[in-house]
Design brief:
Strand content: 15-25%
Structural class: alpha+beta
Number of domains: 3
Pfam families: COMM_domain (PF07258)
Protein name: COMD2 protein
Helix content: 55-70%
Radius of gyration: 27 Å
Number of helices: 5
Largest sheet: 3 strands, antiparallel
Number of strands: 3
InterPro entries: COMM (IPR017920), Commd2 (IPR037354)
Length: about 150
């Protein structure tokens, strides 16, 4: 009926969906939204309709996006134990340490436990990597990304 190709309509719908979801994620103001769509070169009437569509539906879009977000488990507590094997029948002089961790997690009001076992050198490497990741979060680049994700 529109005498337009299917691909054109599909790309238009995908573009409109992207515009509304990203604008709703960032909760941009009316002025910022207008500035964003002015670049597209639409008529003033269409720009006003898009703005009204955004204002009417942004809360609903945000609620749908929050429901679609994966529910990741959260930390509850940690138990740990250090085991050291000092000797065996074949080797009388050996030291074989092992760290056992029991990680308690909350997910959807259910508690689960994960048991992990590692040697101290791997645990130290893991700690160094986590500290490095925390240090990365303090950089300006990461702060900007996190601020835009909220």
């Amino acid at each position: 009926k529109l005498n337009i190709g299917v691909d054109t309509i599909q790309h238009g719908v995908e573009g409109l969906t992207f515009l509304l979801t990203e604008s709703s994620k960032l909760m941009i103001s009316e002025i910022d939204f207008q500035d964003s769509i002015d670049v597209l070169g639409f008529s003033d009437e269409l720009n006003k309709l898009l703005l009204q569509l955004y204002l009417d539906n942004r809360k609903e879009i945000r609620s749908i996006l929050s429901e679609l977000a994966p529910k990741l488990p959260s930390y509850h507590s940690l138990e740990w134990r250090l085991d050291v094997q000092l000797a065996s029948r074949s080797l009388r002089q050996q030291i074989k340490p092992a760290v056992t961790l029991k990680l308690h997690l909350n997910q959807n009001e259910d508690q689960t436990a994960q048991v992990l076992q590692t040697d101290p050198s791997t645990l130290l490497h893991l700690i160094q990597q986590l500290e490095q990741a925390l240090g990365e979060m303090k950089t300006n680049h990461c702060r900007r990304i996190v601020r835009n994700m909220k």
